[in-house]
Amino acid sequence: xxxxSKRDVWMTxxxxxxxxxxMVPPVLFPxxxxxxxxxxxxxxxxxxxxxxSIGLSLLWIWFKTGYTIEDNTLxxxxxxxxxxxxxxEITSTRRTRNPFTDPAxxxxxxxxxxxxxxxxxxxxxxxxxxxxxxxxxNPSVKFDSQFEDEITEQP
Length: 155
Hints:
With 155 residues, the protein is an alpha+beta fold. It has helices at residues 9-28, 44-63, 127-137, 145-153, and strands at 2-4, 65-70, 73-78, 81-86, 90-96, 109-114, 118-122, 142-143. A hairpin with a 2-residue loop joins strand 3 (73-78) and strand 4 (81-86).
Protein backbone atom coordinates (compact mmCIF):
# COMPACT_ATOMS: atom_id res chain seq x y z
CA UNK A 1 0.00 0.00 0.00
CA UNK A 2 1.39 3.43 -1.01
CA UNK A 3 1.33 6.43 1.31
CA UNK A 4 2.23 9.83 -0.18
CA SER A 5 4.18 12.22 1.99
CA LYS A 6 2.31 14.90 3.89
CA ARG A 7 3.31 18.33 2.50
CA ASP A 8 3.62 21.46 4.62
CA VAL A 9 2.84 24.84 3.06
CA TRP A 10 6.26 26.26 3.96
CA MET A 11 8.02 23.27 2.36
CA THR A 12 5.89 23.69 -0.77
CA UNK A 13 6.88 27.34 -0.97
CA UNK A 14 10.60 26.67 -0.48
CA UNK A 15 10.89 23.81 -2.98
CA UNK A 16 8.90 25.51 -5.72
CA UNK A 17 10.58 28.89 -5.16
CA UNK A 18 14.09 27.46 -5.46
CA UNK A 19 13.15 25.22 -8.39
CA UNK A 20 11.73 28.18 -10.31
CA UNK A 21 14.62 30.48 -9.35
CA UNK A 22 17.09 27.92 -10.64
CA MET A 23 15.25 27.05 -13.85
CA VAL A 24 13.64 30.26 -15.16
CA PRO A 25 16.42 32.90 -15.06
CA PRO A 26 18.97 31.02 -17.22
CA VAL A 27 16.39 30.70 -20.00
CA LEU A 28 14.63 34.06 -19.83
CA PHE A 29 17.58 36.17 -18.64
CA PRO A 30 20.75 34.76 -20.28
CA UNK A 31 22.98 37.50 -18.86
CA UNK A 32 21.83 36.67 -15.34
CA UNK A 33 24.26 34.51 -13.44
CA UNK A 34 27.45 36.55 -13.65
CA UNK A 35 28.55 34.70 -10.51
CA UNK A 36 29.76 31.92 -12.80
CA UNK A 37 32.93 33.77 -13.75
CA UNK A 38 35.35 31.15 -15.15
CA UNK A 39 35.40 30.98 -18.96
CA UNK A 40 34.12 27.41 -18.94
CA UNK A 41 30.91 28.52 -17.22
CA UNK A 42 30.48 31.42 -19.61
CA UNK A 43 28.63 29.14 -22.04
CA UNK A 44 24.86 29.57 -21.68
CA UNK A 45 24.08 25.87 -22.19
CA UNK A 46 26.33 24.93 -19.26
CA UNK A 47 24.48 27.31 -16.97
CA UNK A 48 21.17 25.80 -18.07
CA UNK A 49 22.35 22.21 -17.60
CA UNK A 50 23.75 22.82 -14.11
CA UNK A 51 20.87 24.93 -12.79
CA UNK A 52 18.14 22.85 -14.42
CA SER A 53 19.63 19.67 -12.94
CA ILE A 54 19.32 21.10 -9.46
CA GLY A 55 15.83 22.49 -10.10
CA LEU A 56 14.55 19.24 -11.58
CA SER A 57 16.01 17.32 -8.63
CA LEU A 58 13.98 19.50 -6.26
CA LEU A 59 10.81 18.86 -8.25
CA TRP A 60 11.60 15.15 -8.37
CA ILE A 61 11.76 15.16 -4.56
CA TRP A 62 8.46 17.06 -4.44
CA PHE A 63 6.56 14.69 -6.72
CA LYS A 64 8.19 11.37 -5.80
CA THR A 65 8.30 11.33 -2.01
CA GLY A 66 6.27 8.52 -0.55
CA TYR A 67 6.27 5.30 1.39
CA THR A 68 5.13 1.82 0.38
CA ILE A 69 4.41 -1.11 2.67
CA GLU A 70 4.50 -4.42 0.84
CA ASP A 71 6.09 -7.85 1.19
CA ASN A 72 7.06 -7.16 4.83
CA THR A 73 9.17 -4.21 3.68
CA LEU A 74 8.86 -0.45 4.11
CA UNK A 75 10.06 1.21 0.91
CA UNK A 76 10.93 4.88 1.25
CA UNK A 77 11.36 7.01 -1.87
CA UNK A 78 12.59 10.59 -1.62
CA UNK A 79 13.03 11.75 -5.20
CA UNK A 80 16.04 9.91 -6.61
CA UNK A 81 16.87 8.33 -3.24
CA UNK A 82 15.43 5.00 -2.13
CA UNK A 83 15.66 3.03 1.09
CA UNK A 84 14.23 -0.32 2.20
CA UNK A 85 13.61 -1.35 5.79
CA UNK A 86 12.38 -4.78 6.76
CA UNK A 87 9.30 -4.27 8.92
CA UNK A 88 10.34 -7.13 11.20
CA GLU A 89 13.43 -5.05 12.13
CA ILE A 90 11.33 -2.08 13.30
CA THR A 91 11.35 -1.96 17.10
CA SER A 92 9.45 1.23 17.93
CA THR A 93 7.83 4.35 16.53
CA ARG A 94 6.78 7.69 17.91
CA ARG A 95 5.33 10.94 16.64
CA THR A 96 7.75 13.80 16.31
CA ARG A 97 7.81 17.33 14.95
CA ASN A 98 11.49 17.80 14.31
CA PRO A 99 12.60 20.17 11.54
CA PHE A 100 15.70 18.15 10.65
CA THR A 101 16.30 16.66 7.25
CA ASP A 102 14.58 13.35 6.66
CA PRO A 103 12.80 11.82 3.67
CA ALA A 104 9.71 13.87 4.50
CA UNK A 105 7.99 17.02 3.22
CA UNK A 106 6.42 17.90 6.58
CA UNK A 107 7.56 18.37 10.16
CA UNK A 108 4.66 16.21 11.37
CA UNK A 109 6.56 12.92 11.26
CA UNK A 110 6.74 9.38 12.51
CA UNK A 111 10.15 8.46 13.87
CA UNK A 112 10.98 4.82 13.19
CA UNK A 113 13.64 2.98 15.16
CA UNK A 114 14.97 -0.13 13.48
CA UNK A 115 17.83 -2.60 13.61
CA UNK A 116 20.02 -1.74 16.56
CA UNK A 117 20.52 2.04 16.65
CA UNK A 118 19.13 3.29 13.36
CA UNK A 119 16.42 5.94 13.14
CA UNK A 120 14.55 7.54 10.26
CA UNK A 121 11.59 9.93 10.27
CA UNK A 122 8.90 9.90 7.60
CA UNK A 123 5.67 11.83 7.10
CA UNK A 124 2.90 9.73 5.56
CA UNK A 125 -0.25 11.68 4.82
CA UNK A 126 -2.39 9.27 6.86
CA UNK A 127 -0.38 8.39 9.98
CA UNK A 128 -3.01 6.15 11.54
CA UNK A 129 -3.59 4.00 8.44
CA UNK A 130 0.17 3.75 7.92
CA UNK A 131 0.62 2.45 11.46
CA UNK A 132 -2.27 -0.01 11.02
CA UNK A 133 -0.64 -1.42 7.91
CA UNK A 134 2.68 -1.68 9.74
CA UNK A 135 1.00 -3.51 12.63
CA UNK A 136 -0.47 -6.02 10.24
CA UNK A 137 3.07 -6.85 9.10
CA ASN A 138 4.70 -6.68 12.55
CA PRO A 139 2.40 -6.67 15.63
CA SER A 140 5.35 -6.37 18.02
CA VAL A 141 6.14 -2.74 17.07
CA LYS A 142 5.98 -0.46 20.13
CA PHE A 143 4.40 3.00 20.02
CA ASP A 144 4.52 5.97 22.34
CA SER A 145 1.39 6.51 24.46
CA GLN A 146 0.07 9.46 22.43
CA PHE A 147 0.28 7.44 19.24
CA GLU A 148 -1.38 4.41 20.81
CA ASP A 149 -4.39 6.55 21.79
CA GLU A 150 -4.86 7.67 18.19
CA ILE A 151 -4.56 4.11 16.90
CA THR A 152 -7.09 2.65 19.33
CA GLU A 153 -9.63 5.44 18.66
CA GLN A 154 -10.00 4.53 14.99
CA PRO A 155 -12.16 1.44 14.33
